[in-house]
Write a structure and sequence with these properties.
Layout: H1 2-41, H2 45-63, E1 80-83, E2 89-97, E3 103-112, E4 119-125, E5 148-157, E6 160-169, E7 175-185, E8 192-194, E9 208-213, E10 220-236, E11 244-265, E12 277-289, E13 292-297, E14 299-300, H3 306-309
Antiparallel strand pairs: 1-2, 2-3, 3-4, 5-6, 6-7, 7-8, 7-9, 10-11, 10-14, 11-12, 12-13
Length: 325
């Protein structure tokens, strides 16, 4: 009987702590929501930056609480909050847009440290305008190629888990960017690193950066679509014994892929001047094959064969947490 009373007392104490923790996190959420509203709607640059700095400080305080790893943050479209399928990685990102149209991104990565098993977090510091060799460099949270993340893709191969982020940065009134960026955690320390050589046959590529004119739209999304592959075969010519010819055989099949528009200069000779980059008209895709993102051409939502189109239905998923052009 005494043991039962002890169990009841312990359970009541647990419920009290949980209720207290929920109340504390709800208070953080309400205060943060007001600050995030100000980062978008305050009338001057100084006021928007002040609100963002206060939000950074308060979010760091909130994430230091044990209950934060299980808390469901929801700030509407003001802030992107993404959590991986295994609930081990969370990205919280938002922009401050200056009066002149320039963007600066802010955020945090929260994660379960595989080395310690503890929940940890790191502030993300946007250094995107200072980073050289932006597609080839492995970065840290302190040296971050800033973006508001729209999707976190979790994949696995040979017992290892991979996370890939799709992000957006409005840059300025001239150009904008979309980004495909792996995030990984160093085995020895469990600390996050941004950018990884996960792109097959592109040895030095750590992230994909699509920068293009501010006046156009470029698609970047992860979904199930058809991909068309052309296979070259040698076949024997009819009526001969030893003569062969090469033919092309087309196959269409469904895969989950990162699909995006190829961008290129609209005007010849403008390579590297991204204000002149627009969609080339070709849609490309990365499919995850044997632990690598493999580039595919000819990916498309429809194919010529109506028998293939008829049963096809896109993969159901929620809209991105942070919508952009």
């Amino acid at each position: 009987m005494k043991r039962l009373v002890l169990y009841i007392a312990m359970f009541a104490a647990f419920l009290t702590v949980t209720a207290q923790e929920k109340g504390r996190m709800a208070d953080y959420a309400a205060r943060l929501d007001a600050l995030f509203e100000a980062t978008q709607s305050a009338p001057t640059d100084n006021e928007r930056y002040l609100a963002s700095e206060q939000a950074v400080q308060l979010m760091a305080e909130a994430l230091s609480n044990e209950g934060s790893i299980g808390w469901k943050w929801d700030f509407g479209t003001k802030v992107s909050v993404l959590t991986s399928a295994d609930r081990k990685v969370r990205l919280i990102t938002w922009p401050v847009v200056r009066d002149n149209g320039e963007w600066e991104c802010f955020g945090f990565v929260q994660y379960i440290n595989s080395a310690t098993g503890e929940a940890e977090f790191a502030e993300l510091n946007d250094k995107s305008e200072e980073i050289l060799n932006r597609e080839e460099t492995i970065l840290t949270p302190d040296n971050w190629f800033g973006a508001v993340y729209q999707e976190i893709i979790q994949t696995s191969n040979d017992g290892r888990t991979y996370y890939t982020l799709l992000g957006y940065n409005g840059v300025d009134n001239i150009t904008q960017r979309k980004i495909i960026e792996p995030i990984w955690f160093k085995p020895a320390t469990g600390k996050p690193q941004l950018g990884q050589a996960l792109f097959r046959r592109e040895r030095n590529l750590r992230r994909v950066v699509l920068e293009y004119s501010n006046s156009v739209m470029v698609n970047l999304r992860f979904e199930e679509q058809y991909v068309r592959q052309v296979e070259r075969k040698r076949v024997k010519q009819k009526g001969t014994k030893n003569r062969y010819r090469t033919i092309e055989v087309t196959h269409d099949r469904k895969e989950k892929m990162i699909m995006f528009d190829e961008v290129a200069p609209q005007i010849e000779g403008m390579e590297g001047l991204y204000q002149y980059y627009v969609p080339s008209g070709e849609e490309l895709a990365y499919a995850f094959v044997d632990g690598k993102w493999e580039l595919r051409r000819g990916a498309q939502g429809r194919v010529d064969d109506k028998r293939l189109n008829k049963p096809f239905e896109p993969l159901e998923k929620a809209d991105p947490a942070y919508s952009t052009r």
